[in-house]
Amino acid sequence: MSSTPQSGGIVAPGAMGEIKAAAAAVATAAPSAPPKIPSGNAPVQPSGDTAVPDKRPLPAEPVILQVLGAIVDTFVTGVSLSDCERISAAHYAGLSANASVSRADPESVDTFLRLSPARSPHVALALVDLINKSAPPDRASAMYWLLRCLSTSIGTMLICGVGYKRLAPFPNLDHSDRELAMQRLARSSVAPLRALFNAFRGLSALIVGARATETPAESMCRPKFLNVRRLPGMPAELAAAGHKVIVLEKAKYVHPCDLSLEATQSFGTLFDAGGGLQTEDGAAATIAGSAWGGGTAVNWSACFPPPAKLREEWATQHGLTHFTSSEFQQSVDIVQKRIGTVPQNTGGKEHYCGWCTFGCPFGEKQSTMLTWIKDASDDGAQLIEGAHATRIVHSNSQIKNVHLGKHLKLHPIVAVHGIYPDRDIKPYEGSILTSCSDHVADLDGRGYGARIEVTSGHPSFIAMMMPWTSAADHKQRMLMYRHTATFAAVVRDDDSEGQVWADASTGQPRFNWAMSDKDARAAVAGLVHSLRLHIAAGASEVLTGQLGVPAFKRPAGASAEQVLESAEFREYLGQVEAAGIKPNMVGVYGAHQMGTARMSTDAAQGVVDQHGESWDVRGLYVADTSVFPTACGVNTERAHSIAQFIKADLARDRAPNGDTTAPARMASRLVAQTTIMSQPMSTSSRYNGLVLRPLGNDAAHPDRPLPGDAVLCAVTALIDTFTANLSANEADAVASYYYKTVRPDLAKGPQTVDAFLALQSSDLAGMAQAVFATLESSAPADKLAQLTVVLRLLTTTLGTMALCGTGFKRMVPFVDLDRTDRELALRRMADSYLSPIRALFKTFMALTALTVYGHSVDVIGDSSATASPLWEGIGYPGPHPGIDRPSPDSIWRPSFLPVPQACFDQHRSDAGRAAVSDADLPVLSYDVVVIGSGAGGGIVAAELSKAGHSVLLLDMARYTHTTDLPKSEAQAYKLLYQNSAGLITEDGSMQMLAGKAWGGGTQINWSASLVPPQSLRKEWAEKYRLPFFASEEFQKSVDAVTSRAGVGTSAVRHNPSNQLLLDGCRALGFDNDTIPQNTAGKHHSCGGCCLGCPTAEKQGTLPTWIRDASDAGCHFIDAAYAERVIHQGGVAQGVVIRRVVSSCGAINTPALLLRSKLTNRFIGRNLKLHPVTSTFGVFPDRKIDPSQGSIMTAISNQVADLDGNGYGARIEVPSIHAGSFATLVPWRSAADYKRLLLQFPQTASLISLTRDDNSKGTVFIDSDGKARINWTLSAKDSKHALEGLKTAMHILIAAGATEIYSAQNGVPSFFRPAGMSPAQTLESREFKDFIALMDRKGVKVNSTPMFGAHQMGSARMAPSARYGAVNPYGETFDVRGLYVADTSVFPTASGVNPMMTAMSVAHSIAQFIKADLARDRALNGGSVAQAA
Questions:
Q1: CA–CA distance from 661 to each of 93, 668, 672, 1394 (Å)?
Q2: Which residue of 750, 934, 1000, 1078 lies most exposed, with the fewest beta carbons within 10 A?
Q3: Using CA atoms, how far apart are residues 873 and 869, in angstroms rounded to an integer?
């Protein structure tokens, strides 16, 4: 067998025909009638994989998600306490006492039994995604219609019968009744209803059992060379013969290091229809590889040569004599030798990855990727990925051969499980398919029967194939997963009927297949033989997937021989034979498809001739399993011999006139006439235009819901819980502690303290509306809608119970709870075992803190600079106290061009906008357009302008002069940061700060100017094969940017927080150093550069490189959002230029490239961050004032290299103002929160900046083209972040802190014991216990708040397109003349604040662009603009 079995029946729309009466009965309950299922007589036309626009429904109805959640909960739910005890006892009683056999600990067993995955809100959404991927649109619609039916009482009754405790919709039935409903579906006399059960069961098993147990190390799964593309043997043979060959594949190439070991992701990436291809009646499912290497990339390494009996059959019965010839034997020998067949295609190596189902992660399997396509590429074959061939243009009006699509042959598979409690089977480990039994492989004397093989043991496969009678029974069997071996009876399809046709509306393949009686008998013989093999091997229990056939348990004390001869076992085999193989009564799977364009001696018998050439179209060949005259019975290959015939055919074309270029011209015409749904090759695609749109007032979001009274009521309740009016007792306790600990001359007055403790958020007029406005300006539309629903739920009793649990004094909506119960509710959200609920707590907390403490005034909309009463309460003096802002005329102000309105993108049907086509856009001519004015774009614009090129510099930010900068955090975040500083990952676990200002991140960063470390440059040069980074030329760029930015340490004066970091490190003997600043040798202590430098002393790109660019003639446009890059052939449209440079940053650059339809698979992938965690130390006898003085001037690299490869955490000092401080300190209760805030002037903060190693990050675009981010913290990076936190805690104690704390959930503050010195404290049992608690809690997603200000790697630089998005010169592999010059191109995270690294890289790329433009100028004999 060559690939992995898949669940029988992912969706089952055939049920619709059988419940036609039910359709009429529930028409009023269901929103729409069931869709019509097309018949199998649709016109036949060749078709590839799904590349047409997907028109399937995307159900947003909560009712569908509710029904799906109930279905999963029925199949895989937490069992009752009594069942848990019973199953656990039976499990351990059944296991061998052999010490070498693995035994799960009782706690793990109990957790598994009580686990109910359906409680996760992601499960139902994942099911929807799987249905949409696997089912054609009409069948997906049918499934959703059925789900809507199950949301009604009458629909449930008609589909699942009656007799339940109460008549109710399926989700409202109790668990026992839902199990009864599923059992009735499984045993229904109506086959489509049984298919519906199989669909529900398969979906549930695949989603719940998706994640694998182990991931191979990256160092083991990256081979030295993988030039991988498809068509076994053929391109290599033709290319080696000197022919010009182009290989197309609809799949995108996936490198072994990027393979996913999660079933749902792997099926979606490597298999057609997400692994969900199935017959129209749902009775059989099959999987087909959609990967580079085809099925050879995902099969199980089994390499059987074609049997002699098969070859004789094809030669004698079908007249294809070539199969018995010496020439065909020579092809067999060549193929086996090239792939190292023994008979595993591993080149003679032992291969134990166990996961080749999802692509070989070690690159050892000798599939076509490592063999034939490497050969083809070496001989000059051209390769195109992601190219969907929709049709072939030819002179005939239609390919009319009547056999096309007919005679589909499969190898249907049925599974048998054996349980071996005295053995560690570990079905997920080792080689997959290395043995077989042919005992019943020839039941009719003609070679037709069943071969017994071993299946891949991924948990989701076993869960799907394991019979289900109840949730408890299924969980009991899955507990024995490690002790289970599964055999597959692989039947050679003889006379079963199958056909493939193209869907009339989408052109996508559909197929029917019905098992014949003869093949069903062969399958039963395979089942019986597999059962006997299991018993003979020592299994204590065996079972099939046949409904109604129970498991057979070996009698105690009986030997295998005795059992095989016993009456009980013979009776059991009789049950198996009587049950037989009936449609949708047993799971039938398949991984081999054959015969749909079969080879024959004339057109009356088949589709192609003996050479593989189509009978209908001259020069059109088929070289895959389609040409097999019958099912082969084994895994075999045919393409090599067809390649020889094509070589001979091409030689004949050459012969008449000796013209060796004729075949190449013919190939070019063929390619030109083939319609391909893909981007053009990079050699022919050239950037020639740009579409812009004005930003306008993006914060308005006119299409978004306005907050109603209920929403504002919920917001008010939340903000008044976080910042509350303390009771008299609470206020007395907080004030008493404050005056007891803080040095008297540093303490605030009693009146100020009392006023602060009595103040609640809603006392500030309009604060609830301001909080919602912050949410609106930061959240994407869909997230805003979801959060609005959550806020409304908090105004209901049931919603409060669902989100916050129960046990309050009275069961009422959250908004009506007293403050004590509201605090309890929020703590439950913070402590929830569900990450999304914890994310909700984090979101509400951050919104409240940043808005309430970040605003400068108490009346929203007041333009005065009146300080907030909260600022006075905590002792925050404001963003820039005592700073003399320069006069407007003393600071350079750039000039900006107006842009014609028609130049902006008007294609969307926004209200009030007329549609304008690309052809109508006005022409603006420049040599280069640079998008983004930050650390990359500013430098590129200056360098190219100074070289004499005409340059246009665009930025989406509206320019703000230094003297017009905001006077509060909240206003600055809204103006100068993307998403108002509320840019977060999809799961809410990471908040990112990304600049939206002229000067980009250099305008609002903290002046840290660390050059790229030598270790980083060496890593990029050697490991990532980019030698330029180790060159003198790159060093010249580093020197150039540091000089222009005025980088140095001579004028640095450490503020108290930075000095404490140095003092603590020196006391401990830790590494410490001063961070260079880009202040041109001036002392710079504004303290508020994160809100825009109020003195314009910081030498970001605006006062340096951008000013240089302006002096050299560069033009500027502000508030211009680059919608997309036009790069298709023809006349330039929009803005006519010869080069474009994207310097939008690692979030917006990949979004721009994706909107522009670039297809390199690394665009948006490999997003790297520097996840930051915060620690705080209280120094009650010192005036810290963390918002004042120079921001980030000290660093410790003590734990910066924890793995010996440069990955770890650096300790630095952040910029801290009232809003950010209130956001980062932990909230445990309103009283404790205010206690911490009162200590703001005496608090120093340290951050642990972790270098992201193997965390997984992706930038993608939503339906509006906006950038969205997924990022998941890895276990390794989590450990490094924790080490950084602990190191910072040691430093703070060593520096003299009396209280230290972090935002780790569940970790309280640590107070230095009275009378103990810092040195004694570090050695004390109390401190060691505190550190141990930090270790136990760890850094967990949505439990420990993380933020980051550095984004990198999302369009990484690489030596070839197989490893990255841009070449070593910064030019995209997809489009000639389109460059990237920002942190996107970093191969890895930099590990240090990346400004200087980004500047150095951009400076280098600018030199490459200069050389590129010089070549153009030389060719055109003049300026590039003149040439354009």
A1: 76, 11, 16, 52
A2: 750
A3: 6
Q: Is 709 exposed, middle or buried (0-12, 13-18, 19+ CB in 10 A)?
A: exposed
Q: How far apart are CA 1092 and CA 1005, in angstroms?
A: 8
If one counts every other C-beta atom within 10 angstroms of the C-beta of residue 1309, the result is 16
- C-alpha 1027: how far from chain center: 31
Q: Is the alpha carbon torsion for 1011, 1000, 1148, 266 positive or negative?
A: positive
Q: How far apart, in Å, are the Cα atoms of 162 and each of 157, 1192, 1315?
A: 5, 70, 75
Q: Which residues are paired to 286 by β-bridges?
A: 277, 590
For residues 195 and 33, which has the higher predicted lDDT (pLDDT)?
A: 195
Pairing label, strands 1378-1380, 1135-1142: parallel
Joined together, the tokens standing for residue 958 give 């509206």
Q: How distant, in Å, are the alpha carbons of 517, 530, 542, 546, 1270 from that of 523? A: 10, 10, 17, 12, 45
Treating both helix axes as pointing N-terminal to C-terminal, what angle do 1325-1337 and 1275-1295 enclose, rounded to 10 degrees? 160
Q: Any residues with CB less than 8 A from the CB of 984 and at least 6 apart, and which? A: 778, 843, 990, 991, 992, 1269
Tally of CB atoms within 10 A around 357? 27
What is the pLDDT averaged over residues 906-914?
35
φ, ψ at 593 (rounded to 5°): -125, 135
Residue 287 and residue 390: Cα distance in Å, rounded?
A: 21
* pLDDT tens-digit series, residues 931-986: 999 999 999 999 999 999 999 999 998 988 888 887 778 888 888 888 888 888 88
Across-strand partners of 499? Answer: 512
Top pLDDT among 506 and 1105 is at 1105
Helices (H) and strands (E) in the chain, counts: 45, 39
Report the distance separating Cα 853 and Cα 1245, nearest Å.
18
Least confident of 708-712, 715-719, 1361-1365: 708-712
**Strand 689-694 to strand 1120-1126: parallel, antiparallel, or no bridges (unpaired)?**
antiparallel
Active site residues: 1350
The SS3 of residue 49 is coil
- DSSP summary character for residue 473: H
Nearest-angstrom CA–CA distance, 1160 and 1039: 33
Q: Which of 1029, 1020, 1004, 1091 is closest to 1403 using CA atoms?
A: 1029
pLDDT for position 296: 73
Tell me the backbone φ, ψ of residue 544, rounded to 5 degrees. -110, 180
The residue ranking higher by pLDDT, 606 or 1132, is: 606
In this structure, how many other beta carbons lie within 10 angstroms of the beta carbon of residue 961? 14
- Rg over alpha carbons for the chain, rounded to the nearest Å, is 34
- pLDDT band at 576; cut points 50, 70, 90: very high
